Amino acid sequence: MSAALARVSEVAATQTRVAGLACRLDGSGAMYLEADATLVVADLHLEKGSSFARRGLMLPPYDTRATIAALADVLDRYAPRRVVALGDSFHDRGGPDRLGGIERATLAALVAGRDWVWVTGNHDPVLPPTIGGEVVSEIAVGPLALRHHPAPEACRELAGHLHPVAKVVRHGRGVRARAFLTDGERCVLPAFGVYAGGLNACAPAFAPLFPGGFTAHVLGRNRLFAIDHRTLCGD
């Protein structure tokens, strides 16, 4: 086991394969591609709180700081060679300009010295060079295409956009939590941002992506739970 993986041995994570590539699904909602030493996160939605505030919807203005702190923690644990953010990293085009001084400096420190790739999304189709890293519409890692919007006609991809959550009901009590959805060839990652909402995995949007069904790897407090799609419940 590498030193990086040894550091995460006591952190909620599960090992699986997507398109034949070994990867770890981390309890934070990040994915680590082992052979390529690449950490993948989706839908950070930085500055969502300030975006809502501009429209008169007042939320506690700490979402960006909390999301960046969670990202810093997972980067420290895995020490990846490369980071790929799968789009909607900012909640809108003005998000990078609204970063507070502390958040801006912390994010810049995370990006510096790494191969950092920002994939554009529907919320952030244009990203300024001031955030550092490389901006692309999608990127390939081995047989996988890494993009924001899942493409039903493709099969080997990592994508975000849909913010999957899984709901399970047992003994009259329901639990709803963020989840990775995968059929072994494609994986839709959960949103990483603390203010990002979620779409139930039973929603019609997921059906064309997983015609043969999928496993939901549900984020728990101390572990991930692998649940067959047939046992999940709608909202």
Verbal overview:
- There is one protein chain.
- The protein has helices spanning 3-6, 48-54, 63-78, 95-98, 101-111; strands at 13-18, 21-26, 31-33, 38-41, 82-85, 115-119, 134-136, 138-141, 144-147, 157-159, 164-170, 173-182, 186-188, 199-200, 215-219, 224-228.
- The protein is α/β, with parallel strands linked by helices and 235 residues long.
- The protein has one domain: Purple Acid Phosphatase, chain A, domain 2 (4-Layer Sandwich), CATH 3.60.21.
- A hairpin with a 2-residue loop joins strand 8 and strand 9 (144-147).
- Helix 3 packs parallel to helix 5 (101-111).
- The longest helix has 16 residues, at 63-78.
- The termini are far apart.
Q: What is the compact description of this entry?
A:
The chain has about 240 residues and is of the alpha/beta class. The protein is about 20% helix and about 30% strand.
CATH topology category name: Purple Acid Phosphatase, chain A, domain 2
| Shape descriptor | globular
Strand content: 25-35%
Average predicted confidence as pLDDT: 91
